[in-house]
Specification:
Layout: H1 2-17, H2 19-55, E1 59-63, H3 72-80, E2 85-91, H4 93-104, E3 121-126, H5 133-144, E4 149-153, H6 156-197, H7 200-208, H8 213-245, H9 258-284
Antiparallel strand pairs: 1-3, 1-4, 2-3
Length: about 280
């Protein structure tokens, strides 16, 4: 109990004597970790938005004019057996005409009652794990090789550009996130190093009196843990407060799960312990 009381007393004394430095460290860390929180939430939101866009991805396989209507059910069964196909719907000439009239607001095929030029087709939807350019290209090849399929269409160019853009944004985000965490570690280390300078003489006296290295370092390790942990919590609290004040009509902001936030705050506290050790290690030699 005496040692615990001493550690807590040393921790409080350090924070009291270096209040300005501790406050500066807290604010700078809170800002840096808040930037990481914003990046994390933005990445989650973009992933949700990207998934919603892909969920509307459809592939249309057009039926050759020479194929009789009697073979349509057999073709549909073959299409449903293709890996990744979640559902296939048949669009007859009449249904295609109705859809065209709905889109343009009038029937453009007046006079074609006896000869409808619109093609028949199958509209395919896919499971989420197949909504990639590589897997959809495989499905396209299988459809094109089927007897009776004249042409296959889907937004392949848009999908390729979307995947490329998503990969670029993800890589940039990872680099920025790593730089933010590195900046937080350096900032915390420098602030704790400044605090140790004011107590270097007393620290050396305790070393000469036989105090162990771990016992001497623990107040600084706890200080780094406390400041970094509270900074991480403060960043998330501010972000949750901002979410309650700002609303977007086009998309919903997605936050990490509660357990993920708790793990992040614990990891930030661990980062503070590391920074505390880096700040005190010169005096431990």
């Amino acid at each position: 109990m005496t040692r615990i009381a001493h550690l807590l007393r040393e921790l409080g004394r350090s924070l009291y004597r270096n209040f300005g430095t501790a406050l500066s460290s807290f604010l700078s860390l809170a800002l840096l970790l808040l930037l990481f929180d914003v990046y994390w939430a933005a990445a989650k939101t973009s992933d949700r938005f990207y998934a919603e866009l892909l969920s509307g991805m459809r592939m249309e396989a057009f039926v050759d004019e020479a194929v009789p209507d009697s073979t349509i059910p057999l073709m549909k069964n073959d299409i449903d057996l293709i890996d990744g196909v979640l559902f296939s719907g048949y669009v007859s000439k009449e249904s295609a005409r109705e859809e065209l009239s709905r889109l343009v607001g009038s029937d453009l095929l007046v006079g074609y009652d006896s000869l409808n030029p619109l093609p028949r087709s199958f509209v395919l939807s896919f499971s989420s794990d197949y909504l990639t350019s590589a897997k959809l290209a495989e499905v396209e090849k299988k459809l094109a090789a089927m007897p009776g399929i004249a042409n296959v269409y889907y937004s392949s160019r848009w999908l390729n550009k979307a995947e490329t853009t998503r990969a670029i944004v993800l890589n940039i985000g990872l680099v920025l996130g790593a730089l933010i965490l590195l900046s937080a570690l350096i900032s915390s280390t420098n602030n704790i190093r400044l605090m140790t300078r004011t107590r270097a003489v007393g620290f050396l006296q305790m070393r000469l009196s036989g105090a162990g290295r771990l016992f001497l370092a623990l107040p600084f390790l706890l200080e780094g843990l406390l400041i970094s942990g509270l900074s991480a919590v403060a960043g998330w609290l501010l972000l949750f407060y901002m979410r309650g004040k700002i609303a977007f009509t086009q998309f919903e902001v997605v936050f990490p799960m509660t357990d993920e936030i708790v793990i992040f705050c614990a990891a930030a506290a661990g980062l503070g312990v590391i920074s505390g050790y880096l700040g005190i290690r010169k005096l431990l030699r």
